Amino acid sequence: MELPETAPPRHLVPRELPLRVVFEDEHLLVLDKPAGLVVHPAPGHWDDTLLNALVARGTPLSDGAQGRPGLVHRLDKDTSGLLVVAKTDAAHRVLAGALGRREIERRYAVLVWGHVGAALVIDAALGRHPRDRKRMTVLPGGREARTAVTPVARFETCDLVRAALVTGRTHQIRVHLAHAGHPVVGDRTYAQGGARRLTGAQRPFADAVERCAERQALHAAELRLRHPVSGALLELRSEWPHDLRAALAAAAEDPALVDREDPLQYLGFFETP
Questions:
Q1: Amino acid 4: pLDDT
Q2: What is the mean pLDDT of the chain?
Q3: What is the pLDDT of residue 5?
Q4: For a tag on the chain, would you pick the N or C end, based on fewer CB atoms within 10 A?
Q5: In the chain, which ranges are continuous DSSP H helix?
Q6: pLDDT band at 8, cuts 50/70/90?
C-alpha cells in the first residue's frame, strides 16, 4: 500500500445559502454575516459555509490561503456582522497589506457583564490554552494582541461597549473582555459564570438577559477601509442583529428596543468617537 504524503486539496462545493451583501464591485464585496454560519470549510462543515455560498452565487474569489480563497479576515461562527472578501489577487494583496498595517478599522458592538467605567485599552498577548487547544487565553510570550474598549450605554447588569481591534487574533475580543472582568454576554466558552457572577438584587435582571442571549452578544458593526483600487474611503455599518434584540431589550429594560430597526443608532453607538 502506498499512502500519499499529503491529502488532495478539497474543492469548494456550491451550496446555496442566503447572503446579505452590503457593498460589491468587481474588486471586493462586504457581507453582513449572520450568526451560525461558518466562514470557511473545516471538519464538521465541509460544504455549508460562507465560501460554499459564494461559489454557488458565482462570485469570483482571490487565491488567498489554502482552503480560504477570498478571505481577507474571518469571523467566528457565532459572531455576526461585516466581513470583507476579495475577488481578485491584486485586491487581496492590497487589503491584506492594509490589514497588516492596521489601516482597516473594525469596530464591534458588544454586550458585556458588569460596568466599564471608562475607555480602556486591553494589551495582553494571546496563545492557545495549554490544556484546551480549542480555547485561547492570555499567555505570556503569546502573540501581541490589543483591543480598545469604549463604553456606549450602561444598564443594570450589563454595558453596551464598542470594541475596536488593533490586532486581530483568534477570539481576541472575547478573551480580552473576560480577562478585564467583563465577559461577553451569552459567551459559552469565556463567560466566567455569566449571570451567576451577579448576586443579590441584580441577579434576576442578569438571569433575564442571559435567557434571551442564545449566543455571544458580539457583532461586527462598523468597518472603515480604503478601496484597494480607487483609494476611496468605505464606511460601512451594520445594525444590532435581530437574534440579539431581545437580550439588548432585557439588559436595557426597554421592550421597545425589540422592534426598533436602529437600536445601535438610538443608543449612540455610531456617535462614539
A1: 62
A2: 92
A3: 60
A4: N
A5: 50-57, 89-100, 172-179, 203-212, 245-252, 263-266
A6: very low
Q: What secondary structure letter does DSSP report for 237?
A: E
- CB within 8 Å of 91: residues ≥ 6 apart: 27, 28, 62, 228, 229
| Whole-model pTM over 0.85 | yes
Question: Which pLDDT value is given to residue 204?
Answer: 87
Which residues does 47 contact at the CB level (< 8 Å), separation at least 6?
Answer: 13, 15, 41
Over range 199-212, report the average pLDDT: 88
- Nearest residue to 134 via CA among 81, 87, 171: 171
Residue 113 has which C-alpha cell? 457583564
> How does residue 10 score in pLDDT terms, banded at 50, 70 and 90?
low
- Taking Cα atoms as reference points, which of 98, 204, 224 lies closest to residue 157? 204
Using alpha carbons, select from 161, 226, 218, 225 the residue that is nearest to residue 185. 218
Q: For residue 78, which of 40, 39, 44 has the smallest C-alpha distance?
A: 39
Instruction: List pLDDT tens digits, range 172-198.
Output: 999 999 999 999 999 999 987 778 777
Nearest of 228, 17, 249, 240 to residue 110 by alpha carbon: 240
Q: Catalytic pick from 47, 48, 63, 76?
A: 76
- 76 is an active site residue: yes
Pairing between β-strand 28-33 and β-strand 136-138 as defined by DSSP bridges: unpaired
Beta bridge partners of 222: 107, 237
Whether the CA torsion 112, 114, 120, 124 is positive or negative: it is: negative
- Please report the domains of the chain, with CATH numbers, ordered by start residue: 11-101 (3.30.2350.10), 105-224+236-273 (3.30.2350.10)
For residues 216 and 241, is the Cβ–Cβ distance under 8 A? Answer: no
